[in-house]
Amino acid sequence: MKLTEIKEILPTLENVEFQLENGTFVPEHFHVTEVGQIVKKFIDCGGVIRHEKAVNFQLWNADDYEHRLKPGKLLHIIQLSEEKLGIEDSEIEVEYQGETIGKYDLEFNGRNFVLKNKTTTCLAQEACGIPSEKQKKNLSELSVKPVSACTPGSGCC
Question: Pick from 77, 83, 44: which is nearest to 58 by CA?
Answer without folding.
Answer: 77
